[in-house]
Every structure is written in C-alpha cells, then in structure tokens.
Write a structure and sequence with these properties.
Blueprint lengths: L2 H7 L14 H21 L2 H9 L19 H4 L18
C-alpha cells in the first residue's frame, strides 16, 4: 500500500500493522531458480525420463485391470441399489 494511503487511513505498515515477512518477488525468483536447477539435474542423470516413463505413460504394463469390486455398475445392479437417506437440517437456537 502506498505511504500516502497508509497515512490517510491511519494504518502505517510496520507500525500499526506488521510488515511482510517475505518479499514475494524475491522468494518467487529464488523458487523458480531452485526448481530449474532440480529439473536440470534430474534430466542430466536420467531421473526425469524414468519418472515420466513410470508415471505418465498410458501404455504401461504395471497396471492391472480394475477389480470387479470397483467396476462401474451395469443396468441390472442399479435397480437393486438401496436409496440414500436424506437428513433434515436441525435448527438450533444460539445463546446470543
């Protein structure tokens, strides 16, 4: 906030309100630099390729088909499902 606005509203940052603990622009720049260094290191030692191959590939053989217990319901099983009960909200009187 600009100093003239702080004076106008009577709230001086650092005096009436705590000053920011972190400079956002500097912290963001440092974080981007650190992430860039980590990515570069991962690409150089092949870790990025292994991670992408294991976690991003849709043709991976390590996934098995869904078990029957979590497969989508078919048309015959939908009719046998139990209805969901609806809970009515309770109005409470507050002491104040």
């Amino acid at each position: 906030m600009l100093v003239n606005l702080q004076r106008r509203y009577g709230c001086i940052i650092g005096q009436h309100y705590p000053a920011p603990l972190v400079d956002i622009a500097t912290a963001a720049r440092q974080a981007r630099q650190s992430l860039g260094e980590v990515r570069a290191e991962m690409q150089n030692n092949g870790a990025m390729r292994r991670i992408l191959q294991q976690h991003a590939s849709r043709k991976s053989s390590h996934f098995s088909p869904r078990p029957a217990s979590i497969r989508p319901l078919d048309a015959t099983s939908v009719n046998t499902a139990r209805p969901i009960s609806v809970v009515q909200p309770v109005q409470a009187s507050l002491p104040f």
